[in-house]
Amino acid sequence: MANINDNTVKGYDQLIASNERSFIGDKNAPLKILIIGNSITRHGPKPEIGWPYDWGMAASCEENDYVHKFVAKLNENNINAYVMVRQGWWWERHYLDEDVLDHFDKEHEFDADIVVFRLGENIPKENKEHCYEKLKEFAPFICPNGKIVFTTCFWRAEITDDAIRRVAKERNEICIDECFSDDESNMALGKFEHRGVAMHPSDKGMEAIASAIFEKVKILLD
């Protein structure tokens, strides 16, 4: 069973040379979706660990990371959406800072109809006890009027996962409560020399995440 502590990819500076926000689709689309995540969502180039790319670690190509697979599913089902993708490691590492929400003003202003919350893996061990209270503050800020699809962590993280489940339940929101890394084929083991990179989702793992999110988003749109 994969342990979250075995992930040796640093949980900070994951987009050193890249914009932390990107957009997919027509900005005039009737549906706005915000996807907020960490390296699994998008990690900028870091050649020193064998990752020269700028998409969800460790997908084989941009089209195979969960964000782009999810958007492809939207398109295949004629769901016209404007998608903001936000690399949000800053919240994980800095959520005890008084000004942390200031870093997410644009997400608040985007006012998404649906937010996909895919954070949690990079919260420092010493700060995990505060996850519930900080997520309870963060959720309504990034999603002032829409609905949130929460996901628990890719690797088992008891304290963080419990906080995510608790906030989702209190808000009456959907929570995808599945540890995808329990199936080792969902990790890119053996495909990257760096152990931390290889522990990230394989193309199969990315597909599993994308499918789970899409099925829950469909529920919100029915």
Write up this protein.
The chain is an alpha/beta fold. It has one domain (12-221): Rossmann fold (3-Layer(aba) Sandwich), CATH 3.40.50. 32% of the residues lie in helices and 14% in strands. The protein is built from seven helices and six strands; from the N terminus they run ββαβααβαβαβαα. The protein has a six-stranded mixed sheet, with helices on both faces. The relative contact order is 0.20. The model has no long low-confidence stretch (mean pLDDT 94).
Question: What layout of secondary structure does this protein have?
Answer:
Blueprint: E1 21-24, E2 31-37, H1 66-76, E3 81-87, H2 89-94, H3 105-110, E4 114-118, H4 131-142, E5 147-151, H5 158-170, E6 174-176, H6 195-198, H7 203-221
Helix pairs in contact: 1-7, 4-5
Structure characteristics:
14% strand; Rossmann fold; 7 helices; 6-stranded mixed beta sheet; 6 strands
Please provide a brief summary of the model.
With 222 residues, this protein is of the alpha/beta class. It has 7 helices and 6 strands; from the N terminus they run E-E-H-E-H-H-E-H-E-H-E-H-H. The protein has one domain: SGNH hydrolase (Rossmann fold).
